[in-house]
Fold:
Amino acid sequence: MFYKLPKFNYYRVTSLNEALKLINELEDFKVVAGGTDLVMDLKIKRYIPKNIIDISRVKELDYIVDDGDRIRIGALTKLQEIVDSPIIREKAYVLAEAVNQMASWQIRNIATIGGNLCNASPAADTAPPLYVLNAELKLVSVEGERIVPVTKFFHGPRKTELKKNELLAEIIIPVEKDAGASAIKLGRRNAFTLSIVAVATLVKVSGNKFTDVRVALNSVAPTPVRATSVEKALTGREVSLKAVEEASKLVVNDIKPISDVRASADYRREMSIVLTRDSLLKSLERIGVRIGGEE
Amino acid sequence: MKVSFTLNGRRVEVDVEPNEVLLDVLRLKLGVKSVRRGCERAECGACTVLLDGKPVYSCTVLAPMVDGRTVETVDYLASNGELKPLVEAFVKVGAIQCGFCTPGFLLTAYSLLRRNPQPTVEEVKKAIEGNICRCTGYQKIIEAILLASKLYAEKRSERKEE
Ligand SMILES: Cc1cc2nc3c(=O)[nH]c(=O)nc-3n(C[C@H](O)[C@H](O)[C@H](O)COP(=O)(O)OP(=O)(O)OC[C@H]3O[C@@H](n4cnc5c(N)ncnc54)[C@H](O)[C@@H]3O)c2cc1C
Ligand code: FES
Ligand code: FES
Structure:
């Protein structure tokens, strides 16, 4: 046996109330949902918590609901359930597209969307699509609930807006009409890999002008980011390949990439430009606007 | 602590430490050696089991998390005949060399074919993304899964004719 996990007390809860009470009382704990991040972090002793609270059986946090103008996803929804959901595929396809490129089938079958967000990796692949969808997160505690935009949730690598006694309960996605969106991920290989950079974009066009442009990236800053320079440069402009190419270059103003085992900072900058451009073109294609670019 | 779950159709109860992972409980406490210890970090697929019917890695599941649930390995699916067409196809095509990765591939392929009886090459590749094989170069494994899809279809039509 190569890895030995540190010792801890194990608690299993089956309702949200029970979970919230327990995390309000206990000190020095970690909750576990799918465990694909946490068990590895225990193995490498990044965390040595005294207590582990298993929330994987809190059924009331496992759902995908269509409210018409918005979709609500329970934090304990498995990644593969998101990929397979007809609701997500129809109304927030960009999320299914990004999640389908995450990890592997075995991981997607047990890993949760809430776990991906709360782990707060700069490379979290659910973040770019949720950023461009203007998703909101419902955080709950014994004191009540609050809603925060997903863009305010990440404070840094492994740091989030969550207070000690709070859990992420729900992801709320406003349904966008007449928008084209797409997600592209670049890794060291095509499958089963963390991103070097991943991009999601969403566009709306009216009278051949961009009326709404949203661009988000991961792995190029301490947290996932919105590329507001690109968004501002395009909004209101005439749709053209030149406009998209010029604006995509501005993405370097919105990112602060580092060099690590996966790629150098320079490469990440170059690829952020290319992927932003490609994703914008793909988003446009999805609302029937073809303005070229290479295949 | 005591953990009780259905392993290969049989109820088992086993004493575990909360910090043990399912892989170790299966191999060291329950003698299930078809579940292989590979990377131990959710990257190779050698430790794949079916948890409530779905392929997952047993190396990142805490033992207490499987209490009350169902775990299946190739041993069971081989003994009840469910796996026969897949094994036949793997042998026929030559999709096995050292065999270390094979149980994991069989479980993943079996789940794929149940979900999608006639997968395309792309769909097969996507499904086995999380299983690594150091020997075969994957080509034969993909061929074997496609052949198995035909063998299962034949079996189903035979059953209908009976
Ligand atoms: C080999 C491998 C490949 C991977 N590939 C990718 C990839 O391509 N892209 C990617 O983005 N990720 C990837 N991951 C990371 C991981 O699989 C995902 O982040 C996954 O979604 C985590 O979900 P989980 O349910 O397993 O989280 P857990 O491990 O259970 O939890 C993760 C963290 O979040 C906390 N947490 C979980 N749920 C909640 C909640 N509801 N409220 C508050 N806190 C909570 C936990 O305490 C823990 O700190 C990979 C991991 C591995 C091991
Ligand atoms: S041993 Fe579990 S995936 Fe490699
Ligand atoms: S046959 Fe040897 S690892 Fe696959």
